[in-house]
Structures are given as structure tokens and as C-alpha cells.
Amino acid sequence: MERWHSEEDGIRAELNSWAALMELGEETLLRVQLMERIIQTRQFFTIEDSPCAFVLSRYLAAQTNGFFHIDGQGFFDATGNLLFCID
């Protein structure tokens, strides 16, 4: 697991690309809220795929009042509910 701060080189560009995903398709309140939260992100964690990665992601999201993203699947809230699906 690694922890990243939004001020680090290249991180803001990555967060902006995630926020841009929210602009694709029909605008909904959930998409707007998620886009705003991504833009406001100050830190994030990366976790290698493993049997405990989903549980750890949920835990970190709950502790930080955040959400998590799984490559190829989408964005999830701290309870594990899918917020936005990535096609």
C-alpha cells in the first residue's frame, strides 16, 4: 500500500483525469458530487490487488469519509456500494 498527496508531481493530473470521467455521459447529482470530491482530494492510497484489498479499501474509505476506485470496475462508497461504473 502506498499513500499519495495531491501536491506530489503528477498526482493532480491523475485526479483531474478521474474527475473528467464524471463528465462523460448524463449529468446526475451523484456524478457532480463525486467529481467535486475527486477535485478536492488531498490524499489517496494505492493498494495492490489481493484477497483483502476490497476490505482494506472499504476500511480506509470509512476512516477518511471517502470512497475508493477499482481499476476496470468503478468508484465505490465506504460500504462497498458501486457509485459509478467504468465501462
Write the layout of secondary structure elements.
Elements: E1 2-5, H1 11-22, H2 29-39, E2 43-46, H3 53-63, E3 67-70, E4 74-77, E5 82-85
Antiparallel strand pairs: 1-2, 3-4, 4-5
User: Mean pLDDT, nearest integer?
Assistant: 86
How do the strands line up in the largest sheet? Answer: 3-4-5
Helical content band? 25-40%
Biggest β-sheet: count, sense, barrel? Answer: 3 strands, antiparallel
Order of helices and strands: EHHEHEEE
Give the helix tally: 3
Based on CA atoms alone, the radius of gyration comes out at 13 Å
- Please report the distance between the alpha carbons of the first and last residues: 26 Å
User: What is the tally of beta strands?
Assistant: 5
Would you mind describing this structure in some detail?
This protein has 87 residues and is an alpha+beta fold. The chain has one domain. The protein is 39% helix and 23% strand. It has three helices and five strands. The strands form two sheets. It has a three-stranded antiparallel beta sheet with strand order 3-4-5, sandwiched between helices. Helix 1 runs antiparallel to helix 2 (29-39).
